[in-house]
Every structure is written in structure tokens, then in C-alpha cells.
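ok so for the tutorial part 2 we go from a plain amino acid sequence to predicted C-alpha cells. step 1 is just haveing the sequence, like this:
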Amino acid sequence: MQRILWLLYAACALVLALDLVVHRHTEHPWEGIIGFYPAYGFVGCVILVLAAKWMRRLIIRPKDYYQRSDLPPHPSREEDAP
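step 2 — the prediction. this is what the C-alpha cells look like for a chain of 82 residues:
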């Protein structure tokens, strides 16, 4: 596990070093900032995780959802079919 983490760190350092060398054809001035795309990706992932936590509160089912008897029967069951 430790080896995988070090390989990941090395890959991140390599990509950051390549960011200094490789010329990018940017459309906006802020895209030329060193490390802009990694920071943009990190912020985007954080926002996605926070949005998912918020959405979970809206759409979560109760723990006893599948044991409740007030739900209509599922149409694919053989005993419910005519």
C-alpha cells in the first residue's frame, strides 16, 4: 500500500513538473497559472462530494423500507401475477 502511495505522489510531481515545461494553448489568462487544472479538479471533486451528501439527505429511504407491508407488491413476482 505504501508503494502505491509513493507511486501516486511521484506521478503527481511528474505531472506538476511537466506543467512547467509543456506549453498549453489557453483561452483565458487564469488557465496559465501553474497548478490551475489540479486545483480546479480538486475543488470540483470537493463540491461533488458535498452535493452528494446534501442529496443523500433528500432521497434516502428509511432502514425498514423493504420490510414495510404498506408498499404495493412488485409486479415481477410469480405469486402476484394472474
